[in-house]
Write a structure and sequence with these properties.
Order of helices and strands: HHHEEHHEHEHHEEHH
Distance between the termini: 48 Å
Number of domains: 2
CATH architecture of the largest domain: 3-Layer(aba) Sandwich
Largest sheet: 6 strands, mixed
Oligomer: single chain
CATH superfamily of the largest domain: Uracil-DNA glycosylase-like domain
Bound molecules: uracil
Strand content: 5-15%
CATH topology of the largest domain: Uracil-DNA Glycosylase, subunit E
Structural class: alpha/beta
CATH class of the largest domain: Alpha Beta
Length: about 260
Amino acid sequence: MNRQHVMISIVDEILYSLRNLAEKGCRGFDCSEHSLSVLKSWARSTSAEPVPPESAAVIVHPPLQPSPCRGDVPRITDSLESIITDMEDCRRCKLSTTRTSIVFGAGSPTASLMFVGEAPGFDEDQQGVPFVGKAGQLLTKIIQAINLTRDQVYICNVIKCRPPGNRDPEADEILACVPFLNRQIASIQPEFICALGTFAAQTLLKTTLPISKLRGRFHDYNGIRLLPTFHPSYLLRSPDKKREVWEDMKLLMNEMSP
Ligand code: URA
């Protein structure tokens, strides 16, 4: 890990904690937006080069406030806006050199259902919104089929920047980005997560089991019920798998019903 990245990681941590304390009304130290932006500027990269992937440290949040969540979910929660602010013009991995936009997420910040996909594709990179291409149109239909709208759920990806040519995300890219996903989940506190495809399911569940073995039942992600299912892009290539996804969506609907 190089010095610059150690600094970015430490400053991220300080910013996160100060903002959280400020939001809770704590006083006695300077946590004004001005001071936070000064702090942030200390870590700003001076070159266009991405921070080397091996230095993409996971942000470990301090135990300032107990939370019902366990494991990787940060023990203090923050607003989606403050997570976006911390990502800023993110250069934590090499995808920053080829992306058009950071595709953070879309939908309700208080959603009880969150869909987590893999990574933005071409259309998402152009528009800065997740799941707006062909796979996204299919996801919209799946959401409508469970009597919800895109505005009622929250949609995001494990990786916030498009891998060139839509290749699979690489380990260092996931490592750099997953702290932001964990913070998004901690902020939204959904009751259910639907993990779309292998990458989302394996990353959130920390397993190497294939999606075919994971789908069809609920798993635990830090106290949140997580249902893996096939990715909409896979359904576009293998339409016969839609039946299994519909079975999964029925499971979800049953559990979500009051
Ligand atoms: N595939 C994904 O996993 N995410 C998107 O946002 C679009 C396509």
